[in-house]
Write a structure and sequence with these properties.
Blueprint lengths: L12 H18 L1 H19 L6 H21 L11 H25 L3 E5 L4 H35 L1 H15 L8 H22 L2 H18 L12 E5 L3 H4 L9 H20 L12
Antiparallel strand pairs: 1-2
């Protein structure tokens, strides 16, 4: 909904000049692309300053990123943020987290059954490994979902509809992971289809940042604790993983996300989510421009 107010003509030359000069900036800032870019800069800056910090710093950064997101949405987009509402946040996070955990465990199990993975206890120190993984992945999952689903997807769907926004943000999500260790064109395509598609569909279905952040968090955390590279980044996990056979099965150096099995599983989950989103009226049509 476009809630941009139209300035009234008061007959004052000064007021008319002020509106004419400031109105141009306001129109840019309040446009979907304007508040999307403003929000991504703000959230991205918070992420850059806190993502690799010690102890609870990444989690505190996630809280700060949510505050920045809400501020940009209220002031620039001029809309409320039901997608970050506190009410029901715990339940949504747990539901998304359960889905993400199940997705990774089933994917890792299938790859192991087909001979691609073997696991041995790493003995790195249980508590320190778990706490580190939890803090880091809270920061990563929340900030990435705010930028890609909260800002980019919602802005682009205002312009071109939900379907186009899902495709565009999925492609961007894949491209954003091309700089990761072990990345190539295949891994970028895999991330676009698997992560961009599933997380985008999950947001369109539930319209909750907490749901998709929970899914994203347990996805990454489970991979890290299993010792599987998380988008190419080799973690210090509870286990050491042995990789055997074709990279198409195992994902190679990039990790599980470049395996064909979780790609197929993610698509199998994303399709019914999109069907449910359509039935619930959660998919927006492309905006028609006046002729």
């Amino acid at each position: 909904m476009d809630t941009t107010s139209i300035p009234r003509d008061t007959g004052s030359g000064l007021d008319e000049g002020r509106v004419g000069h400031g109105g141009r900036f306001g129109r840019i800032l309040h446009s979907p692309l304007g508040w999307m870019l403003t929000g991504m800069v703000g959230v991205g800056l918070v992420s850059a300053l806190t993502a690799t910090g010690p102890g609870p710093v990444p989690a505190l950064g996630a809280a700060a990123a949510v505050a920045v997101y809400r501020l940009v949405m209220h002031r620039a987009a001029r809309r409320s943020t039901p997608e970050t509402a506190r009410r029901g946040a715990g339940r949504a996070t747990l539901l998304g987290g359960g889905l993400g955990l199940g997705f990774i465990l089933v994917s890792a199990l299938l790859i192991t059954v087909f001979g691609g993975y073997s696991f041995s206890w790493a003995n790195h120190g249980f508590l320190s490994v778990v706490l580190s993984a939890v803090m880091v992945q809270i920061g990563a999952s929340v900030t990435e979902e705010l930028m890609f689903r909260g800002l980019a997807l919602q802005a682009l769907e205002q312009l071109w509809g939900s379907r186009a926004a899902l495709v565009i943000t999925s492609v961007f999500f894949g491209v954003a992971h091309l700089s990761a260790p072990g990345a190539n064109v295949w891994s970028g395509l895999a991330i676009a289809l698997e992560a961009g598609g599933l997380l985008g569909a999950a947001f369109l279905w539930r319209r909750s940042i907490w749901f998709v952040a929970g899914l994203h968090f347990t996805w990454n955390t489970a991979e890290q604790l299993l010792g599987i590279p998380v988008s190419g980044h080799a973690p210090e996990g509870l286990f050491t993983v042995g990789v055997h056979g074709s990279a198409l099965l195992t994902g190679g150096d990039f990790g599980l996300e470049a395996s064909v099995l979780p790609i197929l599983s993610a698509l199998a989950l994303a399709v019914p989510m999109l069907v449910l989103a359509h039935r619930n009226g959660g998919l927006k049509a492309r905006r028609r421009t006046a002729r």
